[in-house]
Amino acid sequence: MSDTIHQMPVRRSRAVRIRPADVAREAVIFAAAEMRATFTWRAYLSGWLLRLMLQTIFFALVAGYFGDRVTRQHVLVGNAIVLGCLESMVIVLMMAQERQAGTLPLLVIAPASHIPIYLGRGLQWMASGLVSSTVAFAILPPLLGVPLPWPRAALALPLIPLICVSSYCYACFLGAVGLKNMSITWLLLNLGYLPVMTFCGVNVPVSFWPLPLRVIADGLPVTHGLAAVRDVLAAAPAGTILGQAALEAVVGACWLAVASLALNRVVRQGIATGALEFGG
Amino acid sequence: MRPLAELGAGIRLQAALIRGAPAQLLVLVTAPLFSAIFLSLAVSEGATARVAAAVIGPGLMSLWLIALSIAATFLSEERFGGRLELFLSTPASLSLVVLGRILAVSVASMLAFAESWLVARYGFGVVVPVRHPGLVVIALLITALSSSFTATLLSSAFVLSRILHVYQNSLSYPVYILGGVVVPLSGLPGWLQPVSRVIYLSWCADLLRNALEAVRPQDVGLDIGMGLGLGALALAASVLLTRHILDALRRNATAGMA
Q: Is ipTM strictly over 0.90?
């Protein structure tokens, strides 16, 4: 049965072609509109953003309790950067909502591919994650008495979007898994970002963990990007920093490929079993 | 007897809902990972004397998070589902039914404490001593009761909100900090400590830390009295607020409007 599913093509009309750039533009417009409907500026700043800043402060205080000033700065930077990953994970919920809305069968017969549309459903959260990570990275260290070495720290800022994008690609895969099992989307979301927070160098170095966990961490987003951020702060050679950044990009690209395959599989299985509309 | 029957009805209903949708107890999946984060920090920094805090923290966080989650969704779901109108026509106390439902999840979520202890023991090879088992049981009981009482008050307050999810999300980490769930109040800035003292969790966390690691627990009576007292105060406020809200819904004929 599964071989049949793999071979079954998703037939798409060639009569009308929609350019990928048009799909991308619409996705961005939709994402912005959805964010405006979710938050007012006041609710976003005083509710959501403040909550994320307090989360970062909480972990920094915990680090200060167990360790010293250096530990506090290490944990503060890690938890500021990981906010982008956390918010990117919301796409797991967004993709499930989209399927519940019944759009998947319509998109499958539409002239545009369903893949960029589904994988673009959480762009607003990735953007929000980018803002949260950047604000936390720039503002919190001096507030907690562990300032970063500016202006050198500014070189780490371009790494934040890279980490957000690779985290988003990873979250897209989890979102595709969630489309098959929509009752566990919250579980997927939490089991998506908490292992990243635990094992990927956010709080303690990756080398703290046993080898099998280090291997898994190597394949998760944030690990290499955060290592690059820490390298920037430690004034490491440019080659080391760029190497880690490249690894983060590769990890993200791999997760995006796996996410696309997983999403296509969900669609093919849905067509084969006739359950595409109902979240089978 | 009737109050107990109403409380029991809430507990039975929530137990049935949990059996049908165990995902409600998501915190039991996340608590071991939070334990791993705190324990990895404690162990890597050689702060083994403070490891009890790393075990208590995820338990208290789970208790608060799940109570908050049920509090935020309960009345809104009843209202959205059109069941609040039916409830208003019964003689039962809504606060007691809500309290029963929250108590059920609070008790279930206390497994998170056991999970954290096991993660420390088998994941990190650290044994957290339980110096005063009787006091630990009392502390857990008081923490579960006060969490449920406080969440009952929040469930009433939340029904008035149109941006519920924002408040629900916003109330987690501030309470973890102010409640001293991992870092005791002595580790917070001085100006924050008086604010922390009105949060029941700060007293419960002190009590739990004392029960686990202190050779001679200090101020046990004060911790118990304040932890339970603040919770009871929240419950009393909840009863009054719920009565006020339900009266308003009846008066304005808006019980069915979500």
A: no
